[in-house]
Write a structure and sequence with these properties.
Number of domains: 2
CATH topology of the largest domain: Aminopeptidase
Number of strands: 22
CATH architecture of the largest domain: 3-Layer(aba) Sandwich
Strand order of the largest sheet: 1-2-3-13-4-14-20-16-18
Largest sheet: 9 strands, mixed
Number of helices: 10
Radius of gyration: 24 Å
Mean pLDDT: 94
Structural class: alpha/beta
Distance between the termini: 33 Å
Strand content: 15-25%
């Protein structure tokens, strides 16, 4: 069961393709640090590649046929793309599904306060993080503020060279004797992850007037100074935070890692390391028999909940609309289409880390550089909340990837009693379709800066293209 290192398979042409894909991927990571930014990026690229918006096709009463390409965006945070195949929908779809949300800090709805002449924004962490990893690193603010008028203000501060950055403070080592006695989960309390955003007060003269002549009370002068900047630069007030979605993410660009530049270090690679090759495979695969579909969804890191998570019906509704425009919709046809579909639940795997080898069962783990990783099951402690793929489906997929000489490996998340994780696979399996988890191995998963192998990204991209082109497995 020794797995081949993918780098050993590359001729000069494949090596160039691998590096080019990685460069494009880094650009995507840098421009898609939130789910809204990812959707914007995907829409722009999709339209360049001949995709039209589903809602426009519906308004125009457009009839769809083989080769047509449509996409649908839901609440600016989730997206689904289809390329219509020549086979009837009831034969099933070939589906790639990835999530585009990542662990981070979120700004609360009543966030701003001042303490000891320092202005803060109060936060709530999103998804599974080690809280101590978010202190003393440069942070950026990304997101939207929607005013009562309906105007949307886009914030993206901390990424440009001349932008300010923000940070969460930590206790100095000289006074940390009590702090360091705590377990890692309690070293930094969640309510202590407050973002420092300013320390300079409004200036007052001897008559209690500000520089601009407004009558002001000297109380919370630093907070008022920051609010003045926000109003002058963006036209927003403190009350506007109530209708805002602001995410705090690591500031800075993704980078090549290692003297050999074999790896990528960047924020949000769980699960954008799978979302990006899924999208590329979708837009680059043409003349299909079975309709291809790529799902790019929100909220996986908090249970796939809400209107933009995989547990909502937005995918099913979009599929019904597409089938209707193809003249193939009925409730029974929709159910058969879903049941006969094949899916790769495109999510990352925990790469083996020899520095923490005791957490892994080495025979059943993924390794950097050894290709796309398959998980027959995920879940935790007895496969709880897992999809467990059928052996027949796995054997079918093995044939596809071996035919294309794509490097693959199989894995579990870690040792049986160590923990585990979940994906969107079990949700899609509710339709009765065949689903298996597969994707890119990641080092330091859920940390501010995650690491992946360029070879694994490339093999996953190649695998997804082969799947969309070749898969025709059905349950009936």
């Amino acid at each position: 069961m020794e797995r081949v290192n993918a780098w050993n398979n590359y001729d000069p042409g494949m090596l160039r393709s691998c590096m080019d894909l990685s460069d494009d991927y880094k650009d995507f990571l840098d421009n898609g640090k939130t789910e809204r930014e990812c959707v914007d990026w995907f829409v722009n690229e999709a339209e360049k590649n001949g995709y039209i918006e589903l809602s426009e096709a519906i308004k125009e009463g457009k009839r769809l046929s083989a080769g047509d390409r449509v996409y649908s965006v839901w609440m600016n945070k989730s997206m689904v793309l289809f390329e219509i195949g020549s086979d009837p929908f009831e034969n099933g779809l070939n589906i790639l599904g990835a999530h585009i949300d990542s662990p981070r800090l979120d700004i609360k709805q009543n966030p701003m306060y001042e303490d000891s002449d320092i202005a803060f924004l109060d936060t709530h962490y999103y998804g599974g993080i080690k809280k101590y990893q978010y202190v003393t690193i440069p942070l950026a603010i990304h997101g939207v503020i929607v005013k009562k008028s309906g105007e949307t203000v886009i914030l993206r501060v901390g990424e440009d060279e001349d932008d300010p950055v923000f940070f969460v403070s930590d206790l100095l080592i000289h006074l940390s004797q009590e702090q360091l006695k705590k377990p890692g989960s309690a070293v930094v309390d969640g309510e202590a992850l407050d973002l420092i955003i300013g320390s300079r007060p409004l200036t007052f003269d001897t008559n209690g007037k500000t520089e601009k002549g407004d009558k002001e009370n000297g109380k919370e002068a630093v907070k008022k100074a920051v609010l003045r900047i926000l109003y002058d630069n963006y036209g927003i007030s403190e009350k506007d935070f109530e209708s805002a979605e602001l995410e705090i993410v690591p500031a800075g660009r993704s980078r090549d890692a290692g003297f050999d530049r074999s790896m990528i270090l960047g924020y949000g690679q769980d699960d954008r390391a799978c979302a990006y090759p899924s999208f590329r495979a979708q837009i680059e695969t043409h003349d299909l028999k079975r309709t291809s579909c790529t799902l790019l969804v929100d909220k996986e890191e908090i249970g796939s909940v809400g209107a933009t998570g995989m547990k909502s019906r937005f995918f099913e509704n979009a599929l019904a609309e597409v089938m209707n425009l193809c003249g193939q919709y009925s409730e029974l046809a929709l159910r058969r289409t879903l049941a006969n579909s094949c899916m790769l639940s495109s999510d990352v795997s925990a790469a083996y880390d020899p520095s923490y080898g005791s957490a892994f069962e080495k025979k059943n783990t993924s390794f950097l550089g050894k290709g796309m990783t398959f998980h027959k099951y995920t879940g935790s402690r007895g496969k709880l909340s897992s999809n467990d793929a059928n052996a027949e489906y796995i054997a079918y997929l093995r044939g596809i990837f071996e035919k294309e000489n794509i490097c693959t490996q199989t894995a579990e998340v870690g040792k049986v009693d160590m923990g585990g994780g979940g994906t969107i696979a079990f949700i899609m399996a509710l339709y009765g379709m065949n689903v298996i988890d597969c994707g890119v191995p990641v080092l330091s998963m859920h940390s501010p800066w995650e690491a992946t192998s360029k070879a694994d990204l490339y093999e996953t991209y190649r695998g997804y293209k082969a799947f969309l082109r070749e898969a025709s497995y059905t349950n009936f």
